[in-house]
Amino acid sequence: MPVLVFDLDDTLYPELSYVHSGFRAVAVFLSPLLSVPAETLAAGMIAEEAAQGRGQVFDNVLRRYGRWSKTLVAACLRAYRQHKPELSLYPDAERCLTRFVAWPLYIVTDGHKEVQARKVAALNLGGRVRHAYLTNRYGRHRAKPDPHVFELICRRERVAPGQVIYVGDNVRKDFVGIKPLGFKTVRILRGNYAHLEADAAHAADRSIHSLDELTAEFIADLAS
Ligand SMILES: [Mg+2]
Fold first, then answer.
1. How many angstroms does the Cα of residue 171 sit away from the middle of ligand 1?
2. Which Pfam families has this protein been placed in (predicted)?
């Protein structure tokens, strides 16, 4: 039986919902310090992210109220990373995990290991996959495109790479490292990378718009 491996952020749930959830936690932390309602602070951070990205959001909210300091920026980052997020799977991801409940399922995700672990817990994925591989646990050099944890999955399942299908959204790193080893790859066209063009080395074997397109037939065709 083929092995199905999923990326996490923007493949199984919208990553922006994590960002917003984190901003709300930071707003609750800052509210008494700035004497501003948490809802006002959260709305400001969410609007700024939409307009300019997330890079300076904590700096700017503190500046706006005349309270910028390195220490407070670091405290905001801590509140963000340590918060317990409230997240939901994309509806098609929910259906997909249910459809393949009898198959060997895995997650492979990069990023801060404790943050990623909290996302897995918030989405209740622990009981729905055989293991969520947080590449960060194996060292930063094991982040995608490094194939290390994919090789661990092959060993654990006693299958060849051709029997392992990876579904991800980030065409910059999700497929380029594992394709040469024979892993099968599926790109889901959503999130920040949906419109990026990929050269032959980075492109996935197939592209889909929804995980509903992932059927047993689709996989049999791909893994044959
Ligand atoms: Mg992703």
1. 9
2. Hydrolase
Contact by Cβ (8 Å): 135, 108: yes
Residue 88 has a CB neighbour count (10 Å cut-off) of 13
Q: How far is CA 63 from CA 66, 72, 73, in A?
A: 5, 11, 10
Measured from the Cβ of residue 81, the count of other Cβ atoms closer than 10 Å reads 13
Averaged pLDDT for residues 112-120:
97
Gap from CA of 210 to ligand 1 centroid (Å): 14
Which pLDDT tens digit goes with each residue over 167-215?
999 999 999 999 999 999 999 999 999 999 999 999 999 999 999 999 9
Q: How far is the CA of 95 from the centre of ligand 1 (A)?
A: 19
Model-level pTM? 0.95
Query: 111 C-alpha vs ligand 1 centroid, how far in Å?
Result: 10
Cα 176 to ligand 1 centroid, rounded to whole Å:
14
